[in-house]
Write a structure and sequence with these properties.
The structure is a single chain. The protein has about 850 residues and is of the alpha+beta class. It contains 23 helices and 22 strands. Strand 13 (about 535-545) and strand 14 form a beta hairpin. Helix 13 (about 450-465) packs across helix 21 (about 745-785) and helix 20 (about 730-740) packs across helix 22 (about 795-820).
Length: about 850
């Protein structure tokens, strides 16, 4: 108890004297950043997941070719989940003498559980959101179905043995497919009307689905239970299984948020490291005085550790409170971009914030404080005496391990952690080498400048390693700020550019070979740019390297299901602009070899354990064809262009039955062309992807606003880094200033000299920081986000001028404090 009391009282004195304020500020900002970002990213991530759930019309979708046991609906209700049912199949409907093939979907009340249906009053009206399903006696039909029938709202359709009136046009449903297998337009009816149609009989090909939605924890528990108890033939899809375009957008949004959180944490760690070093140095005199008065080594060590824990507790409390308040403010500012039905934030971010303070102090301050017990008592009289410093391995090794563990625990993304920490470590080395080169270069310039600059440059050269350390601290702070200021904007702009105004918002599929000329004519007459007709062939993979896929071992059930399903193949010699070769080589525009080559999506290659040179055997219309893997590709799924998991070399499938697909950009004024296309070519299907595009844009907007909000914490952490770097030599500068002024130097000369010193350091740090931010941006764009990145000259200009201005201003502040302190007070204290 005496030790605790003494530690608390002495810490209060140091706080009043300003000795630990920098350390407290750095820790508090670190905790506030982590907790606020934790709260915010959790809520934004949940909003994004809810958008992903809209693709399934729920958080969980259970799908089967056989009727599903209703017991699962009862158990979902007991678990507090909402549920709905859906039954779908392909059939023919009639409007008088006209008929067309449709996909009939019968649903219960409550459908969809996620997202909303959109309906319109006529073929040419814009859809509006509705919260109901068709009542008994009515049917909602897509535009293409009515166009093929020559019908409109109010028409009576013969649906099997039941007559139903088209009461509204079905403009959008959340679970509409954006793939190339939805060959028929959809009509929606109430599930209670299904039996009356007489369409579902023994042997009918029907897809049954049960939908579930609710809070995240019970949903995850229920999904695990379903996966464990349902037969393998029944597929359970969760909200993580969104379409390719949404999945890419969600992954990028998550990484943008994690990136912003991580760089804030790295900056705060640098600030803590600088402040902890100064704090430990300032504790040396106190430790020497305690030992000279009879305190034991154990007592000195215990006092230091207790004070460290108290600092961690204070910083955790302040930072957590700031983080919680900041999160609430940010949520209000984001307004409608965050979903109103999000659950309240959990307490985990606070746990993470407390862990942040503890880990940072243990990693960066404890190794230095452990040496206090060895402080010689004689230091009370001789300030040049100091305990042996901790080894570099103990100090930096423990700090890096602590920081690495902390950031991985925070973001759980090994690639992101490796790039940011590895880039920061490499930047630190480059900055240190640059700082040492700077000190050597400035030594030769001292004779050619004025008195003030001579004094400032002499300080840089004389301090040597300490000046290099300051270049590292200033450079890392500026690098991260430049990275989030410029690179963040460039990356987000590149991401938005993937969804430009001309992004395709329609897929036209099932175009027969003899219809291609007519389809082109219809599109050309409407001034619609058809981006080429891509051939599509249906196939099934039967062997891999001669092994039957039904007997081959796969990593999981999803991989087995993917390998055994019917697949869409295409063939071409032209690599799509939305594809990038990541391994192997593309066969080239003029390839005409006898061997059939195939390029495989890199994620599918991992899922199926495929290697370069493997031979895949496909069954197409009863004929087997072998294709050798020549390359792996990374696909930009959110481009909304026709993309395929597997692409074969040009001409490989010319002899097989095929259809064509294309992607279009259709404006409101061109919608009539889609109706004309549906009437003249009833077998052609047009899939509207506009709603999916708006979902992706919404995800980009959420990520952009959240990253901009997080930037405020990064800016605060960066300012603390700069302040901590200035503080490391403040006492030494005061002493030098006192001596110089005692021997006749004018205050203005000393002031200008210190400012010149910081200006030189700022110029070097700014240039090196711009280099580091550019390199880090290029790697992040390529490896994390699969985006293009161009080097911005403004970043270099900002680095050069910003380094000089910000660090120079810090030097002026430091110089003012050093120069204005009376020499008598400094010399007496020394």
């Amino acid at each position: 108890m005496k030790t605790l009391t003494f530690a608390w009282r002495s810490l209060l004195r140091e706080i009043r004297g300003g000795e630990v304020l920098v350390l407290l500020a750095a820790l508090s900002i670190a905790v506030a950043s982590v907790t606020a970002i934790g709260f915010l990213t959790d809520r934004v991530a949940q909003a994004v997941r809810l958008q992903a759930s809209e693709v399934l019309a729920g958080d969980i979708r259970v799908r089967s070719a056989e009727p599903l046991d209703p017991v699962w609906l009862e158990q979902a209700a007991e678990a507090g989940l909402d549920s709905a049912e859906s039954v779908s199949f392909v059939t023919v409907v009639y409007a008088g003498d006209e008929s067309t093939l449709v996909r009939l979907q019968a649903v219960t009340d409550g459908y969809p559980l996620r997202g909303q249906l959109q309906t319109a009053d006529s073929l040419f009206d814009t859809g509006v959101k509705v919260s109901t399903v068709p009542p008994p006696g009515e049917v909602w039909a897509e535009r293409a179905a009515l166009a093929r029938l020559g019908a409109d709202v109010g028409t009576v359709l013969d649906v099997g043995e039941k007559q139903l009136t088209v009461s509204r046009l079905l403009a959008y449903r959340p679970d509409q497919s954006t793939g190339f297998t939805s060959f028929a337009p959809t009509i929606l009816i109430n599930l209670g009307e299904l039996d009356a149609t007489g369409l579902v009989r023994e042997g009918s090909r029907v897809s049954y689905a049960q939908l579930f939605a609710g809070e995240r924890a019970p949903v995850d528990t229920f999904a695990e239970r379903l996966n464990g108890e349902l037969a393998a033939s029944i597929r359970v899809q969760t909200r993580g299984e969104a379409s390719g375009s949404l999945t890419d957008a969600i992954d990028r949004a998550s990484r943008f948020l994690a990136l912003a959180s991580l760089v804030s944490l790295v900056l705060a760690a640098v600030a803590v490291a600088m402040a902890a070093r100064r704090y430990a140095e300032r504790r040396l005199d106190t430790a020497a005085l305690m030992k000279s008065l009879g305190a034991s080594q154990r007592f000195v060590l215990n006092v230091s550790i207790i004070q460290l824990l108290i600092i961690a507790a204070i910083a955790s409390a302040i930072g957590s409170a700031l983080g919680f308040v900041s999160e609430r403010v940010l949520v209000n500012l984001l307004g409608d971009l965050l979903r109103a039905d999000l659950p309240s934030p959990s307490l985990f971010p606070i746990v993470l914030g407390v862990g942040t303070a503890t880990v940072l102090l243990i990693g960066f301050a404890l190794p230095s404080l452990l040496t206090l017990k060895s402080t010689p008592p004689l230091r009370v009289l001789r300030h040049d005496l100091a305990p042996p410093p901790p080894t570099a391995l103990a100090t930096y090794g423990s700090a890096l391990l602590a920081l690495g563990a902390l950031v991985y625990w925070s973001v759980r993304d090994l690639t992101l952690v490796s790039i940011i920490l590895g880039g920061s470590a490499l930047a630190g080395v480059v900055l240190y080498v640059g700082g040492r080169l700077l000190t050597g270069a400035l030594a030769s310039l001292r004779s050619s400048v004025g008195v003030s600059w001579r004094y400032g440059l002499a300080n840089v050269a004389r301090r040597g390693s300490l000046s290099a350390v300051q270049v590292v601290a200033f450079g890392l702070g500026l690098m991260v700020l430049l990275f989030l200021t410029f690179v963040r904007t460039d990356l987000l702009s590149s991401w938005r550019a993937t969804l430009g105004e001309d992004v395709p918002n329609r897929f036209v599929i099932n175009i027969q070979p003899d219809e291609t000329d007519s389809v082109r004519t219809i599109l050309t007459d409407a001034n619609i740019d058809a981006r080429g007709l891509t051939p599509l062939v249906r196939a099934r993979m039967v062997r891999i390297n001669g092994d039957d896929v039904r007997e081959r071992e796969f990593r999981d059930a999803d991989a087995r299901r993917f390998a055994g399903r019917e697949a869409n193949l295409t063939y071409t010699n032209t690599l799509s602009a939305t594809n990038e070769i990541t391994a192997g080589e593309w066969w080239g525009e003029n390839y005409a070899g006898e061997r059939v080559l195939v390029s495989v999506d890199e994620e599918v290659a991992v899922q199926l354990s495929l290697s370069m040179g493997d031979v895949l055997t496909f069954m197409i219309a009863g004929v087997e064809i072998d294709a050798t893997i020549s390359s792996f590709r990374r696909i930009q799924w959110d481009s909304f262009e026709p993309n395929f998991f597997m692409v074969l070399s040009g001409g490989a499938l010319d002899q097989f039955p095929r259809t064509f697909i294309t992607a279009l950009r259709v404006d409101d004024s061109q919608r009539n062309a889609m109706l004309t296309l549906a009437r003249e070519h009833p077998s052609v299907s047009v899939i509207d992807t506009g709603a999916i595009i708006e979902q992706v844009r919404g995800i980009i907007d959420r990520a952009s606003l959240a990253v901009q909000a997080v930037f405020l914490f990064t800016l605060g952490a960066g300012l603390v880094v700069l302040f901590a770097a200035v503080q490391t030599t403040l006492n030494e500068r005061r002493y030098e200033s006192a001596l110089l002024r005692t021997f006749g130097a004018r205050s203005g000369t000393v002031f200008a000299g210190v400012a010149a010193e910081f200006l030189a350091i700022g110029l070097a740090a700014g240039l090196l920081a711009a280099l580091g931010a550019s390199a880090l941006g290029w790697v992040a764009a390529r490896e994390l986000f699969q985006l293009s990145y161009g080097f911005d000259p403004m970043l270099w200009l900002a680095g050069f001028l910003g380094g000089a201005a910000v660090v120079g201003l810090s030097g002026i502040i430091a110089a003012r404090s050093a120069v204005t302190t009376p020499p008598v007070r400094v010399l007496r204290a020394g």
